[in-house]
Design a protein that fits this description.
Layout: H1 3-21, E1 36-37, H2 38-47, H3 57-66, E2 72-75, E3 78-81, E4 94-95, E5 101-106, H4 108-117, E6 127-130, H5 133-140, E7 148-153, H6 154-159, E8 164-166, E9 171-174, E10 182-184
Antiparallel strand pairs: 1-3, 2-3, 4-8, 5-7, 6-9, 7-10, 8-9
Length: about 190
C-alpha cells in the first residue's frame, strides 16, 4: 500500500471510531441523523496529534472519495457516517435525573480553573460527563497523558437546579456544572 493509501485507511478507521462507535471519547455531539460539524471532528482528531495534527477538511474529502464503499457523507459544514453505528441512540437532549455521581477527565492544567469556575461547555454545546471512571480517564487522556479525574455530585447539583440530559449508556450532558459540585478524585477513591 502507498503512504497516501495507508494514511487514508488509517484516517477512515479513526473517523469511524469517532462517528460510529464512541463519539463521547472525542466529545462529539451527533444530532438525531448522526451529523456532526466538520470543524468539531477536525478539532477532536487534531487533539490526538500524530498524523492528525495538521488534518484538514480536504483530507476528509479525499478519504471519502478514495473509499471502495460509501461510508460517510460530507455536506456543507457537516459530516456523518452512513451506517454501522454501534451507538445505541444518538445523543438526545432529554432532561432526566442523573446518576448520583458522574465523572470528568481533564488535564492537570485545567483543574484549578474548573475548581474555581466550574465545568463549562467551552467549544461544545454541553459539558460531557462519563458514567464511570474508566471512560472519564480515557476521555481525559485526549488532553493529558496523566489526566485528573473529577467527580461531579450530579444528583445534588440536579436538586439545586442544574439540568442534566441523557446521552447514552456512557455519557451524560449538562449545560454548566458549578464548582461547588465538583471534586478531584484522589488515588484512593
Amino acid at each position: 500500500m502507498s503512504k497516501e493509501r495507508d494514511f487514508l485507511v488509517s484516517l477512515s478507521k479513526r473517523v469511524s471510531h469517532a462517528l460510529r462507535h464512541e463519539p463521547w471519547l472525542y466529545e462529539l455531539e451527533l444530532d438525531q441523523e448522526g451529523w456532526v460539524l466538520v470543524d468539531d471532528l477536525l478539532d477532536a482528531l487534531r487533539e490526538d496529534q500524530g498524523p492528525w495534527a495538521a488534518l484538514k477538511r480536504n483530507d476528509l474529502a479525499r478519504m471519502i472519495a478514495s473509499a471502495d464503499k460509501k461510508r460517510y457523507e460530507l455536506e456543507g459544514d457537516r459530516i456523518r457516517a452512513l451506517y454501522g453505528h454501534s451507538v445505541p441512540d444518538v445523543l438526545r437532549r432529554t432532561p432526566a435525573l442523573p446518576p448520583m455521581t458522574l465523572f470528568h477527565g481533564t488535564s492537570p492544567a485545567a483543574v484549578e480553573i474548573i475548581l474555581a469556575e466550574g465545568l463549562k461547555p467551552m467549544r461544545r454545546q454541553h459539558v460531557h460527563l462519563s458514567v464511570d471512571r474508566v471512560t472519564a480517564v480515557q476521555v481525559g487522556k485526549r488532553r493529558a497523558m496523566l489526566p485528573v479525574l473529577l467527580a461531579v455530585q450530579a444528583q445534588v447539583a440536579h436538586t439545586e437546579g442544574v439540568s442534566f440530559y441523557e446521552g447514552n449508556d456512557k455519557v451524560w450532558l449538562a449545560d454548566v456544572i458549578p464548582a461547588q459540585f465538583i471534586a478531584v478524585v484522589d488515588d484512593e477513591g
